[in-house]
Known about the structure:
Layout (H helix, E strand, L loop, with lengths): L1 H10 L3 E2 L5 E2 L3 E4 L4 E2 L2 E2 L5 E3 L4 E2 L7 E2 L5 E8 L23 E2 L10 E5 L2 H4 L17 E5 L7 E8 L5 E10 L7 E6 L2 E8 L7 E9 L5 E8 L8 E11 L3 E11 L28
Parallel strand pairs: 1-13, 3-20, 10-11
Antiparallel strand pairs: 2-5, 4-8, 6-9, 7-8, 9-20, 11-12, 12-19, 13-18, 14-17, 14-19, 15-16, 15-18
Amino acid sequence: xxKLFAFALALMVIQFSFGxxxxxxxxxxxxxxxxxxxxxxxTTYTWTPTTGLTGANTATPVAAxxxxxTYVVSSPISNANIVVNGDFxxxxxxxxxxxxxxxxxxINGSGSYFVGSNANAWNTNMTGCADRNGDVGSDMLIVNGSxxxxxxxxxxxxxxxxxxxxxxxxxxQELHQQNYxxxxxxxxxxxxxxxxxxxxxxxxxxxxxxQWNSGINTQATFCLIDNNIQGNGNDLAIDQISIAPTGGxxxxxxxxxxxxxxxxxxGADTAICAGQSLVLDAGNAGA
Length: 287
């Protein structure tokens, strides 16, 4: 049952949505009239250009341009952590792993993981350490390092803003004072930043950090890998994983097309006798 559960978890694809602006459709107005624009999905808004615009810093400005204009609305990107269950308080959920999930005890040794609060109860060779907040009763990702290079211990897939910088952070601690784990960030199959080795003391947290720019990507799979593949020791606990944008704006556009008002010309005044008729021509088809 344990192996079946781990296999199902490894096949699970997780994708979390992200905020984006949803604005009015492009519209057409006659010269001298106006249209109300609207947007949503942000916190504060700025519309440019401001020509012919009333309420340029609101979600619902009124546009009355004299010529066709493309309005751009922008809103700051939230720098909130997009990781789900990054502190593992929800247990063994919200992420995938190429390691085998093993409930106590760790009889299969290397290449296994467990989400719990007491590493020593899972594997007696490990030290029972508190989590990042110093709470001995809170869950962490407890890992017995793999013997196979490149094995992903934690992964999560997210929609991302294109051309945006992301700050990646994961706290981890050594659980056995031998063959210290070396944590590496990996995004879309490529290592990002430098690998970080654990401090040479058990139960002391080290921060594995990296910076990543999304480029043209609108989706990314973020992973953590233990680069140490030694079998004796190389035990760790991971906690407080975060992935967050660092600045930038999300934008959208609305095109307001201005058409000239129709010209109506019925010609000169004329007189007819009683019983006669006259065809009136406005001189503008469809007017």
